[in-house]
C-alpha cells in the first residue's frame, strides 16, 4: 500500500501533463519571454542604478546611492515628477468618467446589437493600434499647419499653438491618451454592467425608486470591482507615459510634458546610464507603491457593504 501511495501522485501528474501539455507549453513560453525581456532587464536596471557609467565600453564604478542623491538634488527631476503626477491626476478621472459614460451608452437596450458591435470596435481599435503610429498621426493633426488649425481657419477662428503652448500641449497629450486607452476601460465597465442582477432594478422600481436612485444605490456600488481594476491600471499606465511625449512634443514646450519616463530616456541619450536607471527604478517603486495602496483600498471597499 505504501508503494502504491507513492506511485499514484506521479501517475496523476503524468496524466495531467499529457492532457494539458499545450497549456503548459504556452505558459512556459510566456514565462521565458517575461523573464528574458521583463524580469532580467528590470533587475539589471536596478543593479546599474548603483553604478556610474557613461559608455558601454568603460568599467562601471560603484557609487552606492550616489545616483539617487544626485537625482534628488536635480530640480529638473522634481519638475518632471510634478508634471507626471499632474498628468496622471488629470488623465485617470477623465478616462474613468468617459469610459463609464460610454459603457452606459453601450448598455442601453435601445441600441441594436449590430450598432453595439460597431461602437465597441470603434472605441477598442485605438487600444490595439501601435503607440508610435497613433502618436505620429496625432502629431500631424495638431501641428501648426495641421488639420486642427485648418479646421479653425475654415470656421473663421485663429489657429492655436497646440504643441507650442504648455497648457495646450498637456491637454493634447491627455486627449490622445484618452482616445488610446478609454476603449479598454469601457469594455471592463461594460462587462461589469452586464453582470449586475437585473432583478434588483425591478425591485427598486417597484419600491418607487427613480432612475438616479437606482443608478446611485445599485449601479455604482455594483461597479466597484471595475472601478478599482480600471483605476489601478490607469494609474500604472499614465505614470509611465512615454510614447506621446517622445513622438509628439519631445518633452516640451519648456519641459511641460517632460514626464519621468521621457526624462530617463533623455539621460540615456546623454549616456548617463546611472541616472537613467535611477529614474527608472524610482518610477518602478512609485508605481509599485501606488498599486499596492490602490489594491488595499479596493479590497477594503469591496469588503464594505
TrEMBL record:
It is found in: Cell membrane. Keywords: Cell membrane, Membrane, Transmembrane, Transmembrane helix, Transport. Residues 77-294 form the ABC transmembrane type-1 domain. One of its GO terms (cellular component) is plasma membrane. InterPro entries: ABC_transporter_permease (IPR051393), MetI-like (IPR000515), MetI-like_sf (IPR035906). It comes from the Bacteria. SUPFAM superfamilies: MetI-like (SSF161098). Belongs to the binding-protein-dependent transport system permease family. This is ABC transmembrane type-1 domain-containing protein. It comes from [Clostridium] citroniae WAL-19142.
